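Q: Joint fold for the lines below.
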Amino acid sequence: MSELDLNFMSDIAGTPRGNGILVCIQCGRCSSGCPVARLTSEHNPRRLMEMVILGLRKDVLSTQLPWYCLSCFTCLDRCPQGGDVGDVMFAIRNQAVKQGNMPAGVAAQAKALYETTRVINPIRSAIDKRASLGLGQLDNESLGDVQKILKRTGMDKLLPPT
Amino acid sequence: MPELGVELVDMKGANCCAPFSIQSVDYYSWLALAARDLCIAEEMGLDIMTLCNDCYESLLMVNNLLKKNPELKDKANQILSEVGKEYKGKVEVKNLVDVLYGDVGIDKVKNAIKEPIDGLRVGAQPGCHLTKPKRIHFELLRGFKELDELIQATGAESVPYERKEMCCGGPLRDINDDLSRSISREKLRALKDSEVQAIATVCPFCFLQLDLGQLEVKRHFNEEFNLPVVHFIELLRMGMGMKLEDWEIKSHRIPITDLFKGRL
Amino acid sequence: MVNKSVMVVGGGIAGIQASLDLANRGYKVYLVERSPSIGGRMAQLDKTFPTMDCSMCILAPKMIECSHHHNVQLLSYSEVKAVKGTTGDFVVTVLRKPRYVDITKCTGCNICAEHCPVEVPNEFDEQLGTRKAVYMPFPQAVPRAMTVDKNNCIECGLCIKMCQAGAVDLKQQPQEEDYNVGAIIVATGFDIFDASQIPTYGYGRYKNVVTSLELERLLCASGPTGGHLIRPSDGKIPRTIAFIQCVGSRDRRFGATYCSSICCKYSVKDAVLIKEHEPNTTVSIFYIDMRAFGRGFQEFVNRAKSEYGVRFVRSSPGEILEDPASKNLRIWYEDTVAGRIENAELDLVVLCPALIPSKGSGDLAKVLGAEVDQYGFFKAADLITSPVDTTVQGIFVCGYALGPKTGDIPDSIMQGSATAARVAEVLEGSA
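A: Joint structure:
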């Protein structure tokens, strides 16, 4: 276990989507509904909240822990405190990315977004199928705009190097 | 859709709505990208209908956030000014169920059914974002009652089952494929236990996860379900007496030819 | 001339206490109760915590005292419809609902009910048991008289034929009567949160998911099963039971964001009761916090753990699922102390729902002109200086009608006495 950073909780609470962490009473209702937590002890929303509250910044942000979330919002639905657990998970992931941590799959999608405006691009067979069905080519008309936006928000700097 | 009186217009120049993965990367990028799509719709003077649950959740949430929160709206517009757009908050975000149930109306849908699919036991998969989070979108979530009624309108029976709200596992694709498969396996097991004959999805991601996913589950866990998966629109079209095209039939990894004999 | 008369609205323990205190002081008390008998929630309970006294045994003597006291007039099966006036001179219009039975003649012998052909769910047993269309809500009812439920009565006339006292009168009409009183005390108690609003718990769909009040009726000797704890779906004795705390309470999704304050205590009491009935049963309580405040309660919790083997699991389960064949239940929860997600199969699940203002108390508040808080409970005029006064002069409130800051039965009794003292103070006053 790493050192405790006592500012971690308030830091997360200060980010967009993060302030639900402040009302967590660790009742466990979120984790008891989480489909992923049922299958693996690695991911557990309540424990993640606990680690944020305790200040285990490194353990939370530098590991895979927050990334097994499905964003299915079951946790948010169940929380009696209105803690928006699902949203706090996004806030945690935002912080993790700022520290340079994101799984390869997510990084690939972000990169694809920047380069083609789509997070997933069709494979060759799909492109051919589209053509045979008479569906037009996928355009990237919005590429210029997308890149301008991502440069403005600074997300382009968070992308992995080519 | 034209038969039901709905005209769908392609959004020219629309960008990716910023699904779950992008939301995890950066908040303001999400806001701006989704807002850009909302602006395009505003410029067209039309409401948005999404076909995918991830898009629905993304655009709906951003629309709500920006409508309710003037500070956020200003921030988003600051970023959008770079690309010459301004979000004004004039459009609604709807999904397929909204449009069919709300705008077209259940009665019109019922009347359009010429060849009811009587007796088919269907397990509906509304998808996470049509059923949650209730606390935030309560009146807008039409994944249960409304989707059930639409399925029933086609003559089929929407079978109740325990895990209806549960996720299909899609979002974990490419991040942790093993977990993704395990979750769809749980979902498929719940559906199988309720003795449904087919699964009806509303979201293409769920469709992929539960259709192609069955092959993956078979390969990795050696468990077979043989549950045909259809998109709700296909059910509707069959009920309206339309035939599915060849390529549509072939794109189902779990074959649907036996179950829907004569309708295809 | 001081108007030394009071109307007490609500015949539960708080209202009964207030009535007796004032009656003993020489006040004329009109005790209004909308159901056929006084007694309230306490009459539905089996045993009270932490002394494990039989609830009816403590309550019944007070109920009888009310019925015999020369200063107390029971207006049972009645409701307050309108109020005019002010302290010292209120005119209250009370609707006397027709029982279709003359209570001066009825002896409560029950022969009419034995012959009545109509059976309907019994509200007193929380719909678990049945009663007849002519009925006495429970054996110790005060006044000791039958009531005809005209909505379900088929007017077959059998009760009239069988009644030796000629007490049945199906022609009775509702009557409105005016009462001139110096003060009014509200003691309308509570209802329970409708747990079917939380669909993931399956209440209303799964037969073996019950509320704590339903459990009380199952445990009570006067209840639908004669005090044998059997489970609703198949009458088997449940061997694994779970209590789930905070169903609706402390929950921002439903408005009852407060702690209902007695559920931790009564669930431990019920758990111990169950273990006494059936020592081989595994009883688990799933809680967020175990709030056992006050004298004797923490010790009681400790005893429940060490002597009776009640399992305490710090966890709030997210969902309950039912096995369609056995009707057994499966709950998924995370044991937050161990940090593990687990599931358990159970024969019976007891939900501890939030306690909410009594149905109709909102209408009563409007009639009285009294303010209610954001949850619908009667607002005290001032929490420190006048904690049992409502926001209307001359109208007071006690018991759970005031809200969940009351703890348990002794607190309701205390508040009843407090309102009695306030009434006396105000009416006899500084004059």
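Q: Anything notable?
A: Residues 227 and 429 of chain C are 49 Å apart (CA to CA). Chain C has three domains: 5-97+174-189+358-428, 111-162, 193-355.
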